[in-house]
Design brief:
This protein is of the alpha+beta class. The chain contains 1 helix and 6 strands. It has a domain at about 25-110. It has one helix at about 1-25, and strands at about 30-35, 50-55, 65-70, 70-75, 80-85, 105-110. Strands 2, 3, 4 and 6 form a 4-stranded antiparallel β-sheet that branches. The chain has a two-stranded antiparallel ribbon with strand order 1-5. The N and C termini lie far apart (about 70 Å).
């Protein structure tokens, strides 16, 4: 019987030692984004690859982003494109810490930076 108690105690110690590893496991900070790219008349752009840059702002006035992607070449088909924010430049967890609203700005090609994000 004492042998069972020793094994049981060792098992509980092992569980307690391993538990913090799971508690502190990194939460994925990837955001899947799908957009619809149109021309000036509201029609989908031609199929192809378009240079885009994504920025996350903490207010609707686009002055200083809290996260910025490198310019990416994105495939657009029938106006639809997909991108995973944070796939190359990690998104800092701190920007999600206070549950405040965030805005995503997307610049296509050499287009202007948005002055205000809707």
């Amino acid at each position: 019987m004492p042998r069972f108690k020793i094994i049981q105690t060792l098992a509980w110690v092992l569980v307690l030692l391993v538990s913090p590893a799971f508690i502190n496991a990194d939460i994925s900070r990837l955001i899947n984004y799908q957009g619809y790219l149109t021309d000036g008349t509201g029609q989908p752009v031609e199929d192809g690859e378009y240079p885009m840059q994504f920025k996350i702002h903490d207010d609707s006035i686009a002055y200083s982003p809290v996260w910025t992607s490198q310019p990416e070449t994105i495939l657009v088909i029938n106006g639809i494109f997909n991108f995973q924010l944070g796939s190359k430049e990690s998104i800092p967890a701190l920007i999600f810490a206070n549950d405040s609203a965030l805005w995503l700005a997307i610049t296509v090609g050499s287009g202007p930076e948005p002055e205000e994000i809707a």
